[in-house]
Amino acid sequence: MKKAFGALMLLALLAAFAACSEKEEEGEYDNWQARNEHYVDSIATLARNGTDGWEMMPAFTVSDSIGTSADNKYYIYYQRLQSGTGTYSPQYNDSIRVHYSGRFIPSASYPLGYNFGKSYNGSELNEATDVPSLMCVNQNVVGFATAVMHMVAGDRWKVVVPYYLGYGASSSSSSIPNYSTLIFDMQLARVYRYQIDTDTSWW
Questions:
Q1: Could you tell me if 65 and 77 are in contact, meaning their C-beta atoms sit under 8 angstroms apart?
Q2: What is the pTM (predicted TM-score) of this model?
Q3: Domains in the chain, please, with CATH?
Q4: How far apart are CA 72 and CA 40, in angstroms?
């Protein structure tokens, strides 16, 4: 009887160990949709309550008449980290120079979120030497474009873009998994008005 009980205990321990091993071997992006939606919902709650400086605005592709009761996926969420001195916000067809770093939501391997792209080479932005990326506003995903169209030169924002306003449920990018929330630290450096500011050089 004791031997049988010991064998059962051993089997139970082995099963528990196997379960733990399987859990440890879960992929980085397992349950990715649910995890991303939970993250956005948590930030949306902060923004709706005006907590920690979080604010929200509907995407430019969505009517302002939706109010604040619509699904969280239709909004971007942002914190104003630095106020600029510019007076003009870029329009959809304008070009901009912008410093940015983009991350996914925090995960086991990347507690700060995997950095999928940035405009500078070093680990930290050096405004004295790093040249901001030149791009057209309309070349960007809806969430990114929405943010920059409400910024002025010198503004620096942290922006959370739900997957619906990013690369979507079926990402066309090989480096962006489906359902990925995009978290940007972005600083608008300069604006070039469409068909007016033709010299887009930085220096």
A1: no
A2: 0.84
A3: 71-198 (3.10.50.40)
A4: 7
